[in-house]
Every structure is written in structure tokens, then in C-alpha cells.
Amino acid sequence: MTETSEDKTKRKYVDRLLAGIWTHQYSVFYKDIDDSIHLIEDAAKFRQGLGRKFPDQPFLIRLALKAEGRTTQAWLSVLTTQKTPELIEWAERKFSKPVNVIKRPYSQAKAEKSAGSIRKHKPHDLNYFFGKEKVNRYGLINEERYKEMRAAVAEVE
Fold it and tell me: pTM for this one?
């Protein structure tokens, strides 16, 4: 049986999510829920220089939707390997509308819980929400650093 595109995306994202290297999560939400329709364009600007600004750490970025009553809001999850307070200022400058950035520690247990949820549920319909034909739901920035860190974790295990 062949793997669907949706299943392949889930598998690849979960594999990266469970790498054992992510220690911090930054969640970016627009202050006004209605502005979240701009997330695709703003996330592209945010991601473009992120690797150059923080070259020594990888980032796993994922677009997601959250239903709040009758309204749905798009938000951005940014996982990284070290505390990065400058990321908040970077997001505030790169997004076209005011944003809130929530930072918190991220553990392997949290990654495993998220992975289970991703495997079990159908992905959010980002194409419909954004009115686009194809929306990339995640991205990996500074992939070489990611590979190095993942290899180092594998050696320890």
C-alpha cells in the first residue's frame, strides 16, 4: 500500500519532533484573531532570516489552527534547542500585525504526547483556512545543525 502525501508529512514531522533535541517552544499568536489569515506571508518573512540570525541552533516550525468558540485562529509553533529571548523581538518585528509570543520549556514527554496526537488525528485543513491550494505545514531551519545534534543524541543513546 502506498503512503499518502498527508501520511508522509505526518511521518516526517513526527520523526523530527521526536529527535530528542528540542528544549524550548515559542508559540506565536496574533493579538487580533482575525489577523491570523496573514500567517502564511508573515511566517515566510519570519523564517527567511531566522537561520542567519541564529545560525547555531535548529528550528522546527509548524503552522497550526486552534478553534476558539466559533472562530479559528492560525498560530505558529517554533521549537528550538536553547532559550532564545531575542526570538520574541524578532517575531514582533517580522509580523505585519501585533503578536503575542508564549515561551515555555519543551520536554521529550511533551514531544511524545504531541506526536501521538498528530498520528491519531487528521491534520488541520490549512489549505481551506488560508484559501490556498498548497500550504506547507512545517519547516526545518538550520538543517545541518539539526543533523549534528540528532547524531550526538543518537551516540549517547
Answer: 0.93
